[in-house]
Write a structure and sequence with these properties.
The chain is mostly helical. The chain is 75% helix and 0% strand. It has a domain of 95 residues. The chain is built from 8 helices and no strands.
Length: 160
Amino acid sequence: MSPTTLALIVAIVLVLVGLLVAFLGWRRRRSMRTVLRGLSLGLLSAGLWVTGILSLLADAARGIWHWVRDQHLDTRMWTGIGIAAAGVVVFLISSALEPVGRAEGRRRREALLAPQSAQQPVTGAAATAPSGQAAGPGAGLDDPDEDAEITAILKNHGIH
């Protein structure tokens, strides 16, 4: 079978599939989005056939098939196949995750950019320092509550 004939068959099948998707999408959901996607699939495949790009893709598919058939799989090839498979798996996992909307993205960005002091209330000796004393780095070093608080913060950050 010549690449032109194969491209024509593929184009006809894709146009029919696109029209079927459009019809079923309208019939089941009354969704204009599904109708337009089905029509776009049909129009795209017809356009690719008319321009000859579908024939080029058929030639490329045939070339890839010959390459795979004649290839001897060594360690380097298996490594490449494993890397490509990992890429496909990561893509599928990312597609399964729920997308983040604008409001959620804005909330996450604001939470990230907010200063740390605004997120954590001041407690311990720094909060109870008399007005005459500065609650600076050297204030209240002998206070066991502050030492416990500092130790807890360091543990939260992985510093023991």
